[in-house]
TrEMBL record:
It comes from Paraburkholderia edwinii. PANTHER family: MAJOR FACILITATOR SUPERFAMILY, VACUOLAR BASIC AMINO ACID TRANSPORTER 4. Keywords: Membrane, Transmembrane, Transmembrane helix, Transport. It is found in: Endomembrane system. This is MFS-type drug efflux transporter P55.
Amino acid sequence: MLATFMVSIEATIVATAMPRVAGELGGFSYYSWVFSAFLLAQSATTPIYGKLSDMFGRKPVLMAGIVVFLAGSLLCGFASSMPSLIAFRVLQGLGAGAIYPVAMTVIGDLYPLEERGHAQGMIAVVWAVSAVVGPLAGGIIIGRFSWAWIFWVNLPFGVFAIAGFLLLLREQIEHRRVGIDYAGAVLFSVAIISLLVLLTETDASGWVLAGLAGLFIVTGALFIAQERRAASPIISIELWTRRLIATSNTATLLAGMALIGLTTILPIYVQGVLGFSPIVAGTTLTALVVGWPLAVMLSGRLYKTFGIRRSVRAGSLVFPLGAAVLLFLTPHSHPAVAAVASFLMGFGMGLVSITGIMLVQESVEWSMRGSATASIIFSRSLGNTLGAAALGAILNVGIAHYGTGELAVKLRRLLNEPTGLAQLTGQQDVRLVLFHALYWSFWGVFVVALLAVLSSWLIPVATGVNDASARDETRVAPRDKVDAGG
């Protein structure tokens, strides 16, 4: 929980403080790359760390990730320019890529299926708390201390987490000489980074986008060829194409797309269309971080009462139900209606996510559990990137469709200003253009949410834990590799 809190709160603290940091360091044109650099490094390395934890054990990989993350945090505080800050954020992301997936794998090692929901619920609570505490902490640090402390605040958490793993986590690893697939790791990283940059930097020139697309295709093809012939591939094609893992990853990716769509467009709706403050907009999203951990913590009880198959199928319907609430929003709705949509989608996402992780972990032996868990985390991250790009494109198309040339230009200009959303209250024509464009985005979220549910129903739920209706495919892995001291 300490390690997860360290990574999760970092994002919200930095988001609050970055305007001040950019103002002091200069180079505001690099602003978005402070976030993108971290996320690119984290996303590209998540599956690699999962494989390394299968090869060398959870503890050394997890502790190495924390050390790298802390080194990046320390250097970020000493950054003298925006380019140097971006470089140190890459180092942070390289460490963060290990922490969450390997921590979730440790939970899979330590807890049997019927107890894992409660343990992972505690991790979900950490994310919820960090979402609330992070912005407040960032504001206090910027107001009273040097901005460097938004990064240095990670240091005590990381030190205590390392001490805890050293003292309490004991592993029994079968020592064997294995070769690391360096070529596969490099090719995968280049392919994924080029894809993510292609999706996020849509304003780049056509030649740049074409070059990124070509780089992704070439390195992706070379990566697949390398993994098929590697003795110990960094990412097992055979593992990722198993029906249970493939369908779980697909459902998680689609759910991640819908959820990022909600978190990006709902604040625009509440502030720009309804005319409420950023605090009210943030409150509507707080309902999401309440629903998610609540679903995770209730999952174990639901499984015992109704069985896993019925729980996940009935519970997953809550996800598109929340998205359907978005379709009833109007220019005069109360923010509470938006909060209901957030809560329902958060609850549905929590249940889909936790079920996918647990079933995937139970379907493989210890030596593949890290890779399997990392595949789920990576799919969610990729879904977030795809969703942000897709929903942003839908919003832009909607603005061009509903606004005349002058209105569309005026609306885009306001959206690019720091206080532009607040200025929409007295401009009814522009406000209505924004609402209709957002309504297209709401439909996009709803369609993707439906696809996520359909994918979740294709997951071959099968386990011997309190689910007599499904016992056909999942084999329960041995649990004698790891124990906790204390």
